[in-house]
Amino acid sequence: MTTAERLTRKDWLDTGLQLLGSEGEKALTIERLCQVTCRTKGSFYHHFKNHGEFINALLEYWQSEYTNRIITTVEQLDNLSDRRRELDRLAAGIDRHIERAIRNWSGVNRRVQLVLKQVDEQRIQYLVGLISEMGQIDEKIALELAIVEYSTFVGLQQLFPNADSHWLEQIFNRFNQMASAYCVALHRKELE
């Protein structure tokens, strides 16, 4: 981007997420954002009333891009197995540095903690729906499997922040195969 190009609100938010992922929440100052974008504070204030509004917008943007957009994309597919594969692919491609930074930030910021809790619950509930559809199983068991699956997703982000997205996708796919086999076995047992 050249200095002659006008930054959009989205450009500021993208820059914020990248800074968060690479330098942590302390880098989310107006000064640092302006330095990275080669823009003045006036340009920042053209889009955001103050720093607090920027942080709120950043958290909403992260939720929108990293959760809502993914769910919407996956839901456009008709076939359950296609939806699962697409979810695995998109989840594996999430910027793990940003996700880790959000989790770290939530430890020191109540607003971030509340947004992260909402996102975690939204993601888990989406998995509950997919798992329920996959195995025609009790919602309690679907919730337990969703929690294990989501914990695997979060754990892999923490343990392997630089992992290849293809490798992560394979791990997610392997979990789905195990969960599917479990659901089939459970369903057979109920029929006996």
TrEMBL record:
Parts of the chain that traverse the membrane: none
Binding region for DNA: 29-48
GO molecular function, one term: DNA binding
Official protein name in the record: Transcriptional regulator, TetR family
The organism of origin for this protein: Chroococcidiopsis thermalis (strain PCC 7203)
Domain of life: Bacteria
Annotated keywords: DNA-binding
Domain named HTH tetR-type: residues: 6-66
